[in-house]
Design a protein that fits this description.
The complex is a heterodimer. By secondary structure, chain A is mainly α. Chain A is built from 19 helices and two strands. In chain A, helix 4 packs parallel to helix 9, helix 12 packs parallel to helix 16 and helix 16 packs antiparallel against helix 17. Chain B has a domain of 215 residues. The longest helix of chain B has 32 residues. Helices cover 79% and strands 2% of the residues of chain B. The chains are: A mainly alpha, B mainly alpha. The interface between A and B is medium-sized, with 29 and 30 residues.
């Protein structure tokens, strides 16, 4: 498409959002033009990324090294299936999210909207850069840029709560990446003499299982964005951000960047053989399972809607970490697929939470009695997305859970199937009562708010992403086909 | 041209020296500034020409007055010297456009002429220290630069500047005295003052262990450590940086300590050699402990400072710790990290001090409480501050990351894993002290005084933007920074081991 070679397309996709950010900054005097710049950038980005899909599925691997920063550490990009999938998710949902942002920010008459859109574009650029990174160094660069560019978004409200939330956000994410992830990268570079992602892994074969396990721990906890307990606190704190930020960044781009990195490291740095030899990864299977259940239990106790969704995200992210730790063919594909499935479901839930806030100014679950009568479309979408998160057909979430469960059985972790089942029940327990309240309980007697649905700019995205949950149920085969080379490609 | 070219080493020093006299003859601040501008802008031209020549044909040796060493004074430009010459001259030149308004607003009219005179003298001294290969001549330049520095600091508006200058005078003099005692001992043993001559005589196996050599090393290291503000010999520095005029703080932070570190590297590696410095005497152990103390203690103090210039001063002490850590590692990667951080830290810290200078120019204060809400009033200035802060943290994509990567690899090669974590954990302290400024500058309501502030004029803004851009550039393309440092480190380690 556009007559560009895949290499040029790839670089253009990384650079475009940053150019968009500059354009948005320059158009700060005219909100309409500024928002147009966001939309145009988002659409162009998605077009660029989608145009890579064909070549990559046909086996192309666009690859460009720009400059050697330190000998052995080039700034380099390469598109492979997992990265492409992540970039597709982020860039496509950015279009939808931009429409939603415009509705939300205007309905709310939020201050500092230019900063908001600029940072958003930079964050998306970082996510795409991270998705297309060819080595750990490039990935780390965009990983940190993603943290820094989202800090102003988390603290957008500018009040005391935002300040504290921002502190936790920055210290946990920068802290974990500097103190654990960077040493892990240094160790990797030292042991293997490279940080290039390579099929089959780059760590020398025959490494002691204890060392592999320790290195895995540095990665698993160092990638704080994956929100493995006990380094998950930043995610609930980040919920002080405006809802569009929570929706795209803290349900999709930022957190998925975390689990994407975990998958990437497992597949291309450790390699399945090194990881599973001597049970080096067993501890992570247990740890991720524990986070999975514990976060769901915490979600049950949260009465603030966004906080509950945040803990739900923590739990859902652990699915991917769990899939990575199990490291069988189907679990890895399932983990990759879960990035897509959960993204569609969770962004819908956050959109709904934001719509409720815009239309009714409600944030607590206890206030939602009977709201389904006033906002039927919103709450119907909430219901659909909940079913997808729970993992019921005919919605996308069922496939990824299925594959992860199947992979766990292959690897002999039968208990994981139990964990998945318990988790699904917990999902039911913390999501469906909200829907039940909204539709079946009468409004509180003192609730005299007169409101309808949120503005159309908020409502349309909700409908689109809810529909996506359904579409993905049927598209799972294509995703599976895209991700298949991850587990079949031989080293070399 | 070729006749002039052969005289480049002496021109590097003599031009600012003569320029200082010219400036002293000027009648007003503006004309003094104009002359100083012309003089300082020739400095990078000369130093870059020297650098090119060194890269093309190897080290340059220049005999002053045609007297051959070891009797005569030799100027010698090798890769490391050229690297530091470029650093000092570029920082000195880049600062000059900034100087005009900043100096005019902080120093009384009749004193501005003296300020620029002292500035050029200081520059001449620093360049001279770097270029000379004569240990006693080095002492002379050390004194020239130090005396000029005392005056630069004392010209600060605040009366406490006098006390700070006095404190530095005492400490600096002790340091210089220690240095000259060390050089005297070396002369006693080797009968030479030429650095390379001394080195070749010390390389004699019989010379590896005599007591005067050990004492000389100890005196020189302690003396120079005072000048480079190695923890705990740093007490003069925070006051000096905090109370000096903004321009002087920016200049000193970028150059003075860097040149002192250069002298330490020169003596540890080129004169005494790795065998004496690191094997006979435990310089590694001493420096590692003191560097770690600097990295942690000074950085933690920075977190609690409310005067931002003082905060940056403590931050500098911590950053000096990274450089001395690189020296202590005494392997190629570690030393490369140390040397490249000379440059990287000079760029980022000069830009940061300039940002504070711009705030002082508009607001008159650099207290943390006073700058509440300034983020939206002076967005470009604060952007410089935030980017400089990120470089201090060592965020990838900034120059700070490159330095820390080399240091960490240097530590790994020695098998000192805990040191890797120490380097990275200490970086996090910078997140705290930079983050604190960000919170105050953006999250608090501006006071009426801040409300009126705007970004400074372009003449002040452009220099800081240029240095900030350089900080980013050297985080991506490191051919000219780390590439040079690597070659310099290889020469230092390979030559005399």
């Amino acid at each position: 498409m556009l007559g560009l070679s895949p290499e040029t397309t790839m670089l253009a996709a990384v650079v475009l959002p940053f150019i968009g950010a500059i354009a948005i900054a320059f158009l700060h005097r005219s909100p309409n033009l500024r928002e147009a710049a966001t939309l145009v950038t988002a659409v162009l980005l998605a077009a660029l990324v989608w145009s890579l899909a064909g070549p990559v599925m046909a086996g192309a691997r666009p690859d460009v090294a720009l400059i050697e920063v330190v000998p052995g550490l080039p700034l380099a990009f390469k598109v492979e299936p997992l990265g492409l999938m992540f970039a597709l998710v982020a860039s496509t949902l950015w279009i939808v999210n931009s429409i939603y942002s415009i509705g939300y920010m205007r309905a709310h008459d939020e201050p500092r909207q230019t900063t908001f859109y600029v940072c958003f574009a930079i964050a998306l650029g970082s996510a795409v850069g991270l998705a297309f990174s060819r080595n750990l160094f490039t990935l780390f660069l965009f990983y940190e840029l993603l943290t820094l560019s989202t800090y102003p978004l988390v603290t957008h409200n500018g009040d005391r709560k935002a300040l504290i939330g921002g502190r936790i956000y920055l210290m946990l994410l920068i802290g974990s990446s500097m103190v654990l992830l960077l040493p892990a990268i240094i160790v990797t570079a030292f042991l293997s003499g490279t940080t290039e992602f390579t099929a089959g892994g780059i760590l020398p074969k025959g490494l002691d299982a204890t060392i592999v396990g320790l290195l895995l721990a540095l990665y698993a906890f160092g990638i704080g964005k994956a929100a493995l307990m006990p380094l998950h606190f930043w995610l609930p704190s980040a919920m002080v951000a405006p809802t569009p930020v929570s929706a795209l960044l803290h349900a999709v781009a930022v957190v998925k960047a975390g689990v994407f990195t975990v998958l990437k490291v497992v597949i291309y740095v450790f390699g399945v053989e090194t990881l599973t030899a001597g049970g080096a990864r067993d501890w992570l299977v247990y740890f991720a399972s524990a986070t999975l259940i514990a976060a769901s239990l915490v979600a049950l106790t949260r009465q603030n809607l966004k906080a509950r969704l945040a803990y739900s995200t923590v739990s859902q992210l652990s699915y991917v970490v769990l899939a990575a730790a199990i490291a069988t063919s189907s679990s890895l594909i399932g983990g990759g697929m879960h990035i897509v499935m959960h993204a569609a479901g969770k962004i819908t839930l956050f959109f709904c939470a934001g719509a409720i806030y815009v239309a009714a100014h409600k944030t607590e679950i206890g206030e939602l009695d009977g709201i389904g009568r006033r906002m039927p479309v919103t709450m119907a979408a909430f219901f659909i997305a909940s079913l997808s998160i729970i993992g019921l057909p005919p919605f996308g979430g069922v496939w990824s859970k299925w594959l992860i469960g199947a992979g766990a059985l292959d690897a002999g972790f039968a208990f994981v199937v139990g964990v998945l089942m318990v988790s699904s029940l917990l999902n039911v327990a913390y999501l469906l009562p909200i829907v039940g309240r909204a539709f079946f309980l009468p409004p509180k007697p003192d609730d005299h708010d007169v409101h309808g649905e949120a503005p159309l700019a908020c409502l349309i995205p909700i409908v689109i992403t809810a529909t996506l949950c359904l579409v993905l149920f049927f598209a799972a085969g294509t995703i599976e086909e895209l991700l298949r080379p991850l587990v079949t490609a031989r080293p070399g | 041209m070729s006749a002039l070219e052969s005289q480049l080493p002496i021109l590097q020093v003599i031009v600012p020296l003569v320029g200082a006299v010219l400036v002293a003859l000027m009648r007003g601040g503006r004309s003094a500034w104009a002359v100083a501008l012309v003089i300082t802008w020739t400095m990078p031209v000369i130093s870059i020409l020297l650098m090119r020549k060194v890269l093309a044909t190897g080290p340059i040796s220049y005999h002053l007055g045609g007297w051959a060493p070891p009797i005569g004074i030799e100027y010698r430009v090798d890769l490391l010297a050229a690297f530091v010459l470029v650093l000092v001259s570029v920082v000195g030149a880049a600062l000059m456009p900034f100087a005009r308004r900043s100096v005019a607003s902080e120093i009384d009219g009749d004193k501005q002429v003296w300020f620029y005179t002292m500035y050029l003298l200081c520059l001449a001294g620093l360049l001279g220290i770097t270029i000379t290969a004569d240990a006693f001549n080095l002492f002379v330049f050390l004194e020239i630069s130090s005396l000029a520095t005392y005056v630069l600091i004392a010209l600060g508006r605040d009366r406490r500047a006098l006390l700070a200058a006095y404190q530095y005078l005492i400490m600096g003099t002790i340091g210089a005295t220690f240095y000259v005692i060390g050089v005297g001992l070396l002369y006693l043993v080797t009968g030479s003052l030429n650095i390379y001559d001394i080195a070749s005589r010390l390389a004699d196996p019989a010379m590896q262990n005599p007591r005067p050599v050990m004492a000389a090393l100890a005196f020189i290291v302690v003396g120079i450590s005072l000048k480079l503000a190695l923890f705990p010999l740093h007490v003069w520095l925070p006051g000096a940086y905090a109370h000096a005029p903004s321009f002087a703080s920016a200049f000193l932070a970028g150059t003075a300590t860097k040149v002192a570190i250069y002298v330490l590297i020169r003596f540890a590696f080129s004169v005494f050699g790795v065998a004496i410095s690191f094997e006979t005497l435990p310089l590694t152990e001493v420096l590692v402990v003191l560097s770690l103390a600097a990295m942690f203690i000074a950085s933690i103090i920075a977190v609690f400072e409310t005067n931002l210039k003082r905060m940056l001063a403590y931050s500098s002490l911590g950053q000096v710790g990274y450089i001395t850590l690189g020296i202590a590692l005494a392997n190629t990667q570690g030393l490369t990290g140390g040397i490249v951080h000379l440059l990287n830290h000079a760029l980022m810290k000069t830009a940061l001090f300039m940002a504070l200078g711009a705030i002082a120019y508009r607001l008159g204060s650099v207290k943390l409480d006073a700058i509440a809400g300034i983020g939206r009033r002076m967005p470009w200035t604060m952007a410089v501050f935030v980017l400089g802060g990120m470089a201090l943290v060592g965020v990838p994509g900034t120059a700070g990351f490159v330095s820390k990567w080399y240091l960490a690899i240097g530590a790994v090669e020695k098998g000192w894993w805990p040191l890797v974590f120490a380097i990275l954990i200490s970086s996090l302290i910078a997140v705290v002290y930079v983050g604190r400024v960000v919170e105050v500058a953006w999250f608090r309501e501006p006071s009426p005084a801040v409300e009126k502030c705007t970004d400074p004029p372009l003449s002040m803004l452009i220099p800081m933007l240029v240095l900030t851009a350089a900080t980013i550039y050297f985080g991506i393309d490191t051919e000219a920074s780390a590439g040079m440092a690597l070659k310099a480190a290889e020469t230092l380690l390979g030559g005399l081991k």
